[in-house]
Amino acid sequence: MHIRIVIFTLIFLLPLSLVAQDIPVDSLFARFEQTPSKQRSSLSSQLIKVFEKDEMYDYTVTKEHRKDKNFSQALVYLGFASYQLDLAKFQQSIIYGEKTLKFLDKDSLRWLSSCYEILNVALQRQGDFSKALKYTQKDYDIGLELSDLKIQSSALNSLAAINLSTEHFEEALNLIDQAITIERNNPDDQFRSLSIRLGIKSEILMSMDKPEEALTCIDEALEIEKKAGREDKMHIRSSQKADVLMRLKKLEECREVCLDNLAYFEKTQNYIEQIIALKQLGMCEKEMKHYNAAEQYLLKGNKLCEEIGARPLQWRILHQLYIINKETNQLSKAISYFERSTSIRDSLEDEKYQKALSEYQVSYETREKEAKIREQEKSLHNHLIWFLVLLILLILITIIVFVSLRLSSMRKKNILTLEESNRNKNQVFSILSHDLKNPVQAQKRMLDLICAHYDDISDADKKQQLLAVKESSESLSDLLANLLDWASLESGRLVYKPIRIDLPSVIKENIRRIQPLAKAKNITINSSIPQNLYVMADINFFGIVFYNLLHNAIKFSFKDGTVEVESEENNGIIYLRVRDHGVGMDDEEKQLIFNRNKISTHGTAGEVGTGIGLLVCKELINRSGSRISFTSEQMKGTTFTFTLEKADNPNINY
Fold it and tell me: Considering 109, 144, 171, which residue would you say is the last residue of a domain?
């Protein structure tokens, strides 16, 4: 009887074992996703075992975790996000990392920390430093809340890496020194984390042109990895040392190190480190004037960047290709690489990220001060009387200030008016300094290059570059028009004067004006407005609003797409719609769409803007007594709708 039970048990368990061992993770996960939520427990268990075996989790999975349906699903998504990150599939890692957050309880802080760290690394690799900063901040807050120095150290390391990537070197050095202090005082198994921190510090010191100090750091990190026998980490530290050797002009030694690293990373399929090794080899060969070899290494690295979406590394590789072709007088190729590298770098220099970084720096400093205050308060319990005295003084000061403000109410109104004027002025200056300066400088550099090498550039290349400058000038012209409209609104010079207008004719004229912009992306604009439809509107107001909405629709439409202009009548009100089928918006973008402080995003062809156009539309429509609304869904498009009063009888003189 017992033998039968054993045989039956083995027969029952064998298929599960085979599934866990033989079916690829991607196939097993696909089955998990296709299975209804209530029937996932068996597949969840199998996937968790696989991810545990492959060390995809930072913490031990308990029986309670496995029994909890939501938590077990969170573990599956977290493990798959980590698995995708190891394969350098950054977008997939982000998707499943964000899915993990939906299943994790806010009390599961350590697991949340692991998820934030995965998201942070994947987003940095894609060059989305704004979102990476957001998750790193949350990770650091968890470390503070749990008083967990290891989580704090990891978050500080990530913050340093973000500041390094965005060229805030002093801030990066300060952050990594804090992390190193934590690791020296609280070493982990064989100083693993300390080695990582020293590697980052070496890169920061190299960026600050301190190669000798960088060499000391990376040698210490490399010695730690050698003692621990961690071959993969030894090659990563060796890769960081290669940068130092190159800076110290030890080119032959650098090349040997890079070739050894490349062979190892190709064998282990570590794509990011392969790209870094290829970039280093390209730069090393360039320094040795071996331009053909340098270009081959860099082109191979660029291809890998395109395959996995590693945009920050791709920018650096394209910049090196530009330098090589410039030095070898291959001017047409140099121009092409210059344009591509500039385009990627401009997209990485995200103004939204710069604002988030500044806000976080203030928040970080504030939390540091609050932590010091809390420590001081522990030793100040015996001085409560002084606190009470200060409180009374504060109340007295508040009363005095309140009375003063009441007595100077007129002065306060003038100050507020001036402050509003200042804010508007600063906003214009910000736009002028960022959205005008950068493209104008890029045009100047391009024209300088053409003028300097005019006879060496083919007519076709010259024509192509001049067309690019022309398109950029047209974009700047639209920006200036929006700025003038916005300034007129703010100064009160733009007054609403409605008349009866022929709606289809005015729409047709505006479509004709914007047709060159649509043609550049092969976008078709379809209008289904019926003939003889008259409305009451200010023709200038309407033209500004409708042109901006068409411009916005084209900007965020995909190449070869369509934009529809439609109308609907209801109780004497005409609802005019401009619909595109482009990238759409997420919830955060929807909330900020008409915000004065909103930072515009790039269009599908890399178009840039300021967001002022939609702000002008909103204010014009409000002043005319109409309404504007929108609907949007990511990757399906956006529809803007605004209302107009119908003028029923075209023979009436208004």
Answer: 109
CB 97 within 8 A of CB 119: yes
Q: Which DSSP letter does residue 306 get?
A: H
**DSSP code per residue over 531-542:** TT-EEEE-HHHH
524 closest CA partner among 558, 561, 552: 561
Alpha carbon 270 to chain centroid, angstroms? 23
Kindly report, residue by residue over 460-493, the tens digit of the pLDDT: 777 777 776 766 665 566 566 666 666 666 666 6
Q: Are 540 and 478 found together in one domain?
A: no
* Domain presence at residue 53: yes
Which CATH number goes with the domain that contains 435? 1.10.287.130
Residues 516 and 602 in one domain: yes
Residue 497 has pLDDT above 80, yes or no: yes
Beta carbons within 8 Å of 167's beta carbon, 6+ residues apart: 207
Q: What is the pLDDT of residue 204?
A: 93
Other Cβ atoms closer than 10 A to 29: 21
H helix or E strand, kind and range, residue 558: none
| Segment 186-191 mean pLDDT | 78
Q: What is the pLDDT of residue 630?
A: 92
Interatomic CA distance for residues 236 and 230, integer angstroms? 10
pLDDT at residue 20 above 50?
Answer: no
Structure tokens at 456: 């060496």
**471 and 613 part of one domain:** no
- Expressed as residue numbers, the domain containing 628 is 495-646
Residue type, 395: I
Same domain, 577 and 518: yes
CA atoms within 13 A on the CB side of 255: 14
Interacting residues of 299 by C-beta distance below 8 A, sequence separation 6+: 321
Stretch 389-412: mean pLDDT: 83
In which element (H, E) is residue 511 found? helix 503-520
* Cβ–Cβ < 8 Å for 130, 353: yes
Query: What are the tens digits of pLDDT across the range 67-81?
Result: 888 888 889 999 999
Over residues 109-137, the pLDDT tens digits come to 889 999 999 998 888 888 788 888 889 98
Q: What is the DSSP letter of 611?
A: S
Say which residues have a Cβ less than 8 Å from residue 261's Cβ, sequence separation at least 6: 235, 238, 239, 242, 273, 277
Select from 494, 522, 552 the last residue of a domain: 494
The count of structural domains within the chain is 3
Average pLDDT for the chain = 81
Q: What is the dihedral of CA 407, 411, 416, 422, to 10 degrees?
A: -150
Within this chain, do residues 510 and 601 fall inside the same structural domain, yes or no?
yes
Would you say residue 597 lies in a domain?
A: yes
**Residue 525 within any structural domain of the chain:** yes
Residue 579 in this model has a pLDDT that exceeds 90: yes
Residues 587 and 559 in one domain: yes
Compare 390 and 533 and report the one with higher pLDDT: 533
- For the CA atoms of the chain, what is the radius of gyration? 30
Q: Is residue 407 part of a domain?
A: no
Q: Which of 469, 476, 472, 471 is nearest to 447 (CA)?
A: 469
Question: What CATH number is associated with residue 552?
Answer: 3.30.565.10
Examine the domain organization and report whether 508 and 639 are in the same domain: yes
**In terms of Cα–Cα distance, which of 554, 376, 586 is closest to 478?**
554
Considering the entire predicted model, what is its pTM? 0.48
Q: Is the same domain home to 537 and 641?
A: yes
What pLDDT digit, counting tens, does each position of 510-557 carry?
898 888 888 888 999 999 999 989 999 988 888 889 988 998 899 889
Quick one: residue 199, left, alpha or beta (phi over 0 = left, psi -120 to 50 = alpha)?
alpha
